[in-house]
């Protein structure tokens, strides 16, 4: 092997070891994480690739000047809602006609709740005196990136259920007609673990009750109790109750369930 080929081999091994190599399947995930921030007809086009690393969110924003003019003092102004905090101050850039710029923004996360990042791109051109503002689409940070399935004893679950002051009650509203299928759909949608043993869910009695549990990367607990009953017309009715110590988790999980429970996908 030539020196160049050897160096390439070493580089590839290093990338594999550090997890830098991505499979082809990850390309679809990457595309899902690209968010369009401006319209195609805006003079400045922007899109963001969002990466979530537990306590940090990194936005890789591509800004494209679609005009024939040089854009001066172009600044990406971001603001956050929820427990999100911008790390660095915005910088000014000059963008040549029809050229692009990669801008990185780092955001710190301090609790598990659905946060929102919103902002503008502001710039000047030589023939217009005032600054032009392009409003960006909001970026919603998904709570599912922060919670993972966990296990606790029935006694611990009951103690937490009694202690936690925040409850969110969501009515069952779904096209799914099988109780177990609906339970599995909710488990998948909320990234939680079913604590109720399979043997307790086996019988066909037209009624199902199950406890779900998850923990956030910040050590917060999320509890869910699902109770569904099959009606005479075959539809499911009942409630999904969410309890947590913080309002953010209870509200965000409730929103997620409301959004996801209707379909089977």
UniProtKB/TrEMBL annotation:
UniProt GO molecular function: structural molecule activity
Alphabetical keyword list: Cytoplasm, Cytoplasmic vesicle, ER-Golgi transport, Golgi apparatus, Membrane, Protein transport, Repeat, Transport
Domain Coatomer beta subunit appendage platform: 130-257
Record-linked Pfam families: Coatamer_beta_C, Coatomer_b_Cpla
Ranges where the Coatomer beta subunit C-terminal domain occurs: 5-124
Single biological process term from Gene Ontology: endoplasmic reticulum to Golgi vesicle-mediated transport
Taxon lineage: Eukaryota, Viridiplantae, Streptophyta, Embryophyta, Tracheophyta
Membrane protein topology class: Peripheral membrane protein
Name this polypeptide is given: Coatomer subunit beta
PANTHER family in alphabetical order: COATOMER SUBUNIT BETA
């Amino acid at each position: 092997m030539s020196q160049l080929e050897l160096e390439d081999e070493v580089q590839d091994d290093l990338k594999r070891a550090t997890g830098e190599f991505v499979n082809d399947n990850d390309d679809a995930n990457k595309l899902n994480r690209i968010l369009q921030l401006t319209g195609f007809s805006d003079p400045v086009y922007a899109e963001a690739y969002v990466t979530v690393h537990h306590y940090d969110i990194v936005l890789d924003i591509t800004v494209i000047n679609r005009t024939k003019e040089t854009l001066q003092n172009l600044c990406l102004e971001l603001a956050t809602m929820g427990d999100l905090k911008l790390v660095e101050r915005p910088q000014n850039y000059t963008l040549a006609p029809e050229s692009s710029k990669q801008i990185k923004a780092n955001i710190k996360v301090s609790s598990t709740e659905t946060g929102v990042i919103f902002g503008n791109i502001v710039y000047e051109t030589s023939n217009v005196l005032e600054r032009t503002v392009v409003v960006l689409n909001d970026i919603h940070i998904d709570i599912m990136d922060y919670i993972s399935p966990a296990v606790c004893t029935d006694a611990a679950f009951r103690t937490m259920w009694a202690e936690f002051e925040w409850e969110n009650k969501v009515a069952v509203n779904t096209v799914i007609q099988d109780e177990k299928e609906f339970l599995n759909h909710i488990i998948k949608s909320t990234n939680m673990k079913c604590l109720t043993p399979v043997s307790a869910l086996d019988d066909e009695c037209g009624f199902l009750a199950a406890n779900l549990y998850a923990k956030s990367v910040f050590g917060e607990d999320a509890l869910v109790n699902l109770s569904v009953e099959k009606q005479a017309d075959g539809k499911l009715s009942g409630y999904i109750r969410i309890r947590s110590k913080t309002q953010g988790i209870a509200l965000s999980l409730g929103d997620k369930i409301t959004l996801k429970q209707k379909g089977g996908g």
